[in-house]
Amino acid sequence: MKIKLLKNRSDIGAGTRGSDMGIDAVEIAAINAGNDYFHRHLYMDIKSHNETIYRKNTNEFAKRIEHVLEQCIRVSDAVQQTFNYGLFPLIISGDHSSALGTISGIKAAHPEKTLGVIWLDAHADIHSPYTSPSGNIHGMPLAAALNMDNLECQINHPSDITLSHWNALKNIGVDGPKILPKHLLYFGLRDYEKAEEELIHREHIKYFQVKELRFNSLRDSIEDAIESLKECDHIYISFDVDSMDCDKISYGTGTPVKIGFHPQEIMNIIDMFINTGKVSCIEFCEINPLLDNKGNKMAETAFSVLDHISRKIESILS
């Protein structure tokens, strides 16, 4: 089995432009490092819809949802096709909304298998159009994957057309939930709204905070997480670069949050899950070179992680 890179230059689900350039920034980081990474792997460019950012938004509580739906379907199809060819999908995306497409594609390729999700992120991304204070869909992919509206915390009243698109989002790939709450694990969670917090506690979703992981030992926490996913046949790792410490790395992401992981901690976390032999898909997202206050530092750091885990995956698959 070989790795296939899926390049998804879409940032229409975010509140800030620029993460569509993240892939190019990572490629530049590889070139500057004298690394032929992007010549060593098969790849596919997924068609994007970024020009829709200039059109009038008609869905206040789920901005550009109709175009995010299109993009997630494209990503889902690309992921499913990659599995069908016997390849390992490694996705580099713009904003995090596309992760719903990835999860949907994994489930479409393996409908009878149980999927676990590792969400390396400062944010919960578990809002719905009913609860989102911003309407940015990169804050909603997990609610859609879980098929949860969280009506208990409703503050918005979305239009019928918005809800039609939202229901379509929840049913990409296969109908209904793609994952169960007990098979979703957060790492680095530290910035979320009350509606998200209530849903996480109501559904007993596990989360590991940065300080907790350092205090309890990374290995013990990961072993606990692996035990929680023992029923899962596949594990998907979604790595949002804002899970890392913006002060120590850079502010090159749309929603930076202080006190995050160091790059080596990210590599160690991902390595331990890869060692289980269950990781079948990994995604990188939210690298925004337009916001980088240290040149191209965020993309350079992301590339070092990408190169490291790719070699780890290849060693496991060979």
At CATH level 3, the topology is Arginase, Chain A
The computed structural class is: alpha/beta
- Nearest-integer average pLDDT: 96
Low-confidence spans: pLDDT under 50, at least 5 residues? none
Measured between the Cα atoms of the first and last residue, the distance is 7 Å
Number of domains: 1
Look at the structure and name the CATH superfamily. Answer: Ureohydrolase domain
> Roughly how many Å is the radius of gyration?
18 Å
CATH architecture, by name, is: 3-Layer(aba) Sandwich
Shape: globular
- Written as H for each helix and E for each strand, in order along the chain, the element string is EHHEHEHEHHEHEHHEHEH
Largest sheet: 8 strands, parallel
Placed side by side, the strands forming the largest sheet appear as 2-1-3-8-7-4-5-6
Strand percentage, roughly? 5-15%
Annotation field: number of helices = 11
Provide the helix percentage: 25-40%
Write the layout of secondary structure elements.
Elements: E1 3-8, H1 22-32, H2 37-40, E2 42-46, H3 65-84, E3 88-93, H4 99-109, E4 115-120, H5 141-146, H6 160-170, E5 184-187, H7 194-202, E6 206-208, H8 210-216, H9 218-228, E7 234-240, H10 263-274, E8 279-285, H11 297-317
Parallel strand pairs: 1-2, 1-3, 3-8, 4-5, 4-7, 5-6, 7-8
Helix pairs in contact: 1-11, 3-4, 3-6, 8-9, 9-10, 10-11
